[in-house]
Amino acid sequence: MLLAIDCGNTNTVFSIWDGEKFLCTLRTSTHHARTADAYFTWYSTLVKHYGIEVDITDVIISSTVPRVVFNLRVFADRFFGCRPLVVGKPDCLLPANPRVDEGTQVGPDRLVNTAGAFDRFGGDLVVVDFGTATTFDVVAHDGAYVGGVIAPGVNLSLEALHLAAAALPHVDISKPQKVIGTHTVECIQSGVFWGYVGLVREICERIKAEAGVPMKVISTGGLAPLFQQAADLFDEFEDDLTMHGLTVIHRYNKENGST
């Protein structure tokens, strides 16, 4: 079985893949000082809780936080006896190599989203990922990542607003009932929700115009379901796109002799 690990700036997700489906998905906060033993204690406790019989033979890791990769490597080697694939490293092959400026390092999360989206929807895509940052990944007709856009994440923007303006409260984001707020919380929710709807719509339209071809817009990430409520913003929503992309890259490496 495959253990797919996606380590983001805020959360780290472990998913167990049996070759056909994910048996379970486990989530913890990202913390660079967490040891291999701590990972295993947390992981084994939850697997036991779910009553799942697993025999992990392979591990693949995508991490936007470089400092956690060492302990995750030790975790895979010590407890599963395998050398993990790490997306972005030279020995981890990609179904299609990115076409970006020479010397540019593309975030592993963006490479994984590209692979997963192309496998499910084909090429000519814009993948909008609502994470700590809101990213736009442009996928060419052949499945290559060809660039994109990075904007501040929704929760990051809310936190910055709260910290920088003493009189403004911390607000949980939701779709407001109307655009014009009649109290402070509604005003902030409207500004953030409709502001990001406008940001996503405008950036996607400009990407399509620049690419000069029809493109599908795919949403993923924690807040993607919220923004699905904005009509005609996205063509598809995929809640497990990143984890699916990890299985695609792992399979490609298996078939091409890299693992």
TrEMBL record:
User: Which organism was this protein described from?
Assistant: Ruegeria conchae
Query: Binding positions for K(+)?
Result: 129
The metabolic or biological pathway listed in the UniProt record of this protein is: Cofactor biosynthesis; coenzyme A biosynthesis; CoA from (R)-pantothenate: step 1/5
Residues annotated for ATP binding in this entry: 6-13, 132
Name of the protein this chain belongs to? Type III pantothenate kinase
What does this protein's UniProt record list under function? Answer: Catalyzes the phosphorylation of pantothenate (Pan), the first step in CoA biosynthesis.
Primary subcellular site in the record, as a coarse category: cytoplasm
Q: Where does substrate bind?
A: 107-110, 184
Subunit structure of this chain's protein: Homodimer.
- Binding note for cofactor: A monovalent cation. Ammonium or potassium.
Under PANTHER family, the record lists: TYPE III PANTOTHENATE KINASE
Active site residues according to the UniProt entry: 109
UniProt entry keywords in alphabetical sequence: ATP-binding, Coenzyme A biosynthesis, Cytoplasm, Kinase, Metal-binding, Nucleotide-binding, Potassium, Transferase
**Catalysed transformations (reactions):** (R)-pantothenate + ATP = (R)-4'-phosphopantothenate + ADP + H(+)
User: Any idea where this protein resides?
Assistant: Cytoplasm
Q: How is this protein annotated for GO cellular component?
A: cytoplasm
Cofactor(s) this protein cannot do without: K(+); NH4(+)
The biological processes this protein is annotated with in GO are: coenzyme A biosynthetic process
Q: Matching SUPFAM superfamilies, A to Z? A: Actin-like ATPase domain (SSF53067)
| Gene assigned in the entry | coaX
Top-rank taxon of the source lineage equals Bacteria
Which protein family is it in?
A: Belongs to the type III pantothenate kinase family.
Q: Name one GO molecular function term.
A: pantothenate kinase activity
Entry keyword annotation includes ATP-binding: yes
Q: What is its EC number?
A: 2.7.1.33
